[in-house]
């Protein structure tokens, strides 16, 4: 009996695009990669070597790829600045869409994409928040839902990248939207998952420093920052993001409830090997986010394909993805302005007099 397979195209063959291409090609049995797009010549060369032998056609024009015969879905992993327009173009061609986060750094543009998706309910349109597909975070969510820690009231979560002594992070900051919008957006998304995506924000504040990358100043960004989000109803989230971890990637989340707490990745390690020597006990940790979340991306690809082929519900809504961007953008604003931002219970921004 033949297995039904979804014909997909990969938009973008940068670092993340290559990983998506490999996952959908070799680790997602119900997907068939038939096309890939990139305007970059080096990435095209990689595609010709690694994808063309499997029957994947490489395009240098995105719209031409959308017209590939039989194409049914697009996985978008290009630059953030073109995510929205590429998602809209795919939907206009009646194609399902999985788009890397964020859809856009502009809230109005995000809303435009959401409305376009709502107008086509037969299409599956999803923003890729990989931690939703991680086995440990899913286990934590199920424990919260089962009441293991009582009522969750406080989330303390961090996204910390390994230090890169080059100017990579400075160049990246020009287009990333800032550390909260780029890094902490994952922690914000987790908070909305654990607290409920409709929970209203009461206030937002942030502070940061430039400890090892002074060049970030021209983009209004920091290499270490903390943010606090207070929600109506008596819940708080505390976020820490850093670009200078010497030892490797360290993404950790603590959920504190009225009857206990849960900690995800409290002792980061690449595997279960510890080294015992006269220098003490040591363990290795992942060098980047993919070392920590590789299998989450594999799960994401398989569940997206299953949602399309089996017409099942996506694991989270586009509205939730928009709220994560909204909160991340507000944190970035608070970081730059040094001012606390307030909201009423309906989510409308309000001004409070200074004392």
TrEMBL record:
Q: Which GO terms describe its cellular component?
A: cytoplasm
Q: Using the record's annotation, list all stretches that form the Gfo/Idh/MocA-like oxidoreductase N-terminal domain.
A: 6-122
- MF GO annotations: nucleotide binding; oxidoreductase activity
Q: Which Pfam families match?
A: GFO_IDH_MocA, GFO_IDH_MocA_C3
Q: Which GO terms describe its biological process?
A: NADPH regeneration
The GFO/IDH/MocA-like oxidoreductase domain sits at: 137-262
Q: Which family does it belong to?
A: Belongs to the Gfo/Idh/MocA family.
Q: Which PANTHER family match?
A: BINDING ROSSMANN FOLD OXIDOREDUCTASE, PUTATIVE (AFU_ORTHOLOGUE AFUA_6G09900)-RELATED, NAD(P)-BINDING ROSSMANN-FOLD SUPERFAMILY PROTEIN-RELATED
Protein name as catalogued:
Gfo/Idh/MocA-like oxidoreductase N-terminal domain-containing protein
What is the originating organism of this protein? Monosporascus ibericus
């Amino acid at each position: 009996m033949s297995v039904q397979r979804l014909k997909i195209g990969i938009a973008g063959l940068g670092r993340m695009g290559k990983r998506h291409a490999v996952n959908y090609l070799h680790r997602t049995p119900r997907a068939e990669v038939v096309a890939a797009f990139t305007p970059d010549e080096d990435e095209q060369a990689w595609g010709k070597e690694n994808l063309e032998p499997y029957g994947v056609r490489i395009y240098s024009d995105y719209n031409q790829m959308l017209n590939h015969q039989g194409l049914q879905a697009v996985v978008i992993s290009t630059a953030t600045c073109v995510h929205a327009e590429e998602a809209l173009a795919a939907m206009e061609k009646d194609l399902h869409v999985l788009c890397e986060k964020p859809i856009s750094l502009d809230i109005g543009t995000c809303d435009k994409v959401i409305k376009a998706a709502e107008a086509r309910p037969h299409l599956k349109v999803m923003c890729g928040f990989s931690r939703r597909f991680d086995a440990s975070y899913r286990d934590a969510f199920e424990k919260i839902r089962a009441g293991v820690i009582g009522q969750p009231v406080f989330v303390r979560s961090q996204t910390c990248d390994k230090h890169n002594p080059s100017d990579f992070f400075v160049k990246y900051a020009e287009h990333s939207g800032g550390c909260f919008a780029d890094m902490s957006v994952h922690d914000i998304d987790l908070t909305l998952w654990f607290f409920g995506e409709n929970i209203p924000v009461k206030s937002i504040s942030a502070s940061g420093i430039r400890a090892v990358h002074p060049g970030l100043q021209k983009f209004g960004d920091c290499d270490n920052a903390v943010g606090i989000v207070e929600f109506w109803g008596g819940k708080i989230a505390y976020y820490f993001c850093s670009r200078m971890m010497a030892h490797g990637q360290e993404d950790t989340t603590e959920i504190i409830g009225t009857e206990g707490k849960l900690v995800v990745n409290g002792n980061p390690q690449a595997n279960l090997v510890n080294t015992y020597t006269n220098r003490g006990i040591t363990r290795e940790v992942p060098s980047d986010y993919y070392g920590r979340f590789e299998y989450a991306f594999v799960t994401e690809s398989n569940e997206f394909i299953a949602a399309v082929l089996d017409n099942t519900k996506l694991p989270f809504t586009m509205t939730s993805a928009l709220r994560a961007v909204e909160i991340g953008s507000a944190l970035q604003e608070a970081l730059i302005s040094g001012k606390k931002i307030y909201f009423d219970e309906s989510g409308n921004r309000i001004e409070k007099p200074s004392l």
